[in-house]
Amino acid sequence: MSGPRRILITGAGSGLGLELARQLATPGVTFIICGRRLSALDAAAAELRALGAEVETSAVDLTDPAARDAWVATASAGTIDLAILNAAQFGGRGRDGMLERPDVAARMIDTNLAAPVALALRLSDQMRAAGQGTLLFISSLGAFAVQADAPTYSATKAGLTAFARSLREDLGPDGVRVVIAHPGHMETAQTEVHRGPLPGLMPVKDAARVILAGLEAGRSEIDFPRHLRLGLRLQALLPWKVQARINRGLRFWVDDGEDDRT
Q: Which homologous superfamily does the CATH classification assign to the domain defined by 6-254?
């Protein structure tokens, strides 16, 4: 993919964030990446440098406003061509049948919604002033799905999509592009703890390829697998009790290793 020279990625130490970086890595590209685990970031940086890219790493807890703001202020001191807001946390009903604890739900909201919103607002100011740049939000098909076993996760993704769509209308006239990816299930750490059906499960390498192809093609929203997105559109037209009956076969729990959530 040609174009962006300075690329910021959150959650780049593993999973989709790392795979997107791999496929974007080429001589002349500089990555500004962050994650929670420095060891994973160092390994990712070594791999990306071997592909010819330059890499700046920071271990940042994006739920810490001071640390997050300091990182993005340093990162945006230079022009950012592409910012991929990818970091997210997954959680839901546990093995004991209970939904996530309130503190876990609050952290998911901070990680999946509050952090990318805050980062995007700061980055959008810089991009607006430069008259160029792309913000790529990694949302989820969960933004459109009724997931009784992961209500907080679904809410954060729905909120992220709503925010990004609103930001797109505001930034468009100033030359700043906003793109939203809505992937389905991918072979990442999230699906490793998901105990239940995984329709449309896709290797993360293929998911990254779909996202970058959509980005290159100029799409504003990249939804896949497409047949699942169509199914969710049609299901949303039905009464909620009918939707609930359809969803029974997709119920799941999250194997987070916790036996007692009280």
A: NAD(P)-binding Rossmann-like Domain (3.40.50.720)
